[in-house]
Amino acid sequence: RFLLAALVGCLLALTAEARIGNCSELSFYTETSQCLLFKVICETNKYEVRRYEAAKWVTTTEWSWSMDIACMNAFMRLFDYISGENENGQKIEMTAPVVIKIDEEKKWFWEAKQYTMSFLLPKEHQANPPTPKDNQVFISDTPALNVYVRSYGGWMTSWTDCHHKEALMYDLMKDGASFKGNCHFGVGYNSPMTLWWNRHNEVWVIAEGNPVCSSSEEMD
């Protein structure tokens, strides 16, 4: 029984190493050393399908009429956590990407939307991250999942995020793909201080069932 437990522990450790690794493995520019890595299942000239394994994040939620204001408030709250506002007083390395889950279930234009921002925890903190001091900050888990991804440059704003989200969903519906339409994810890989021509952003939509890539190139 002890040997079995040890084997399972080793396998879990290997899985953690596989999903969070050196950012140099990504094909696009980023400024951190550790990134959430993925497998490309297939791609078209409009989007790609990626497989992400389970991961642990530090997360906060903000309600606002403006994505830009919500992201600013949420980012600073999470930045305080990695700067030492946790039970260990420990500084934690910044990683990529920063992910914002955006609720699509707003019914009226005057209603605030829910924005949930997450920082990926580095691999050394995946098993046992420090507890946040701020009660608006919490540790969350994402399961393994497939996502449809559209990439773009420049600044991520409420307008650019909405534009690329609508374009991605339009292409997915045209290709007959099934996806979760009650939310999407705005994803950034750069510091707020990085100039617009060096920025890489993405929109993610969670795939349902078998992913679809019409006129696609299958990846090994």
Please state the average pLDDT score. 88
CATH topology name: Multidrug-efflux Transporter 1 Regulator Bmrr, Chain A
* Helix-strand category: alpha+beta
What best-fitting shape do the alpha-carbon axes yield? Answer: globular
Q: What is the CATH superfamily label?
A: Regulatory factor, effector binding domain
Radius of gyration from CA coordinates: 18 Å
Write down the CATH class.
Alpha Beta
Distance between the termini: 37 Å
Number of distinct helices: 3
Family: Belongs to the HEBP family.
Subunit structure: Monomer.
Signal peptide: 1-18
Keywords: Cytoplasm, Signal
Summarize the structure in words:
With 220 residues, the protein is an alpha+beta fold. It has a single domain (2-218), classed as Multidrug-efflux Transporter 1 Regulator Bmrr, Chain A, CATH 3.20.80.10. It has helices spanning 2-19, 67-82, 158-174; strands at 20-22, 34-36, 39-43, 48-52, 55-64, 98-103, 113-120, 137-142, 145-152, 183-188, 201-206, 217-218. The strands form two sheets. It has a ten-stranded antiparallel sheet, covered by helices on one side. Strands 1-2 form a two-stranded antiparallel ribbon. A hairpin with a 4-residue loop joins strand 3 and strand 4 (48-52). 30% of the residues are buried. Belongs to the HEBP family. It holds the Pfam family SOUL. Keywords: Cytoplasm, Signal. This is Heme-binding protein 1.
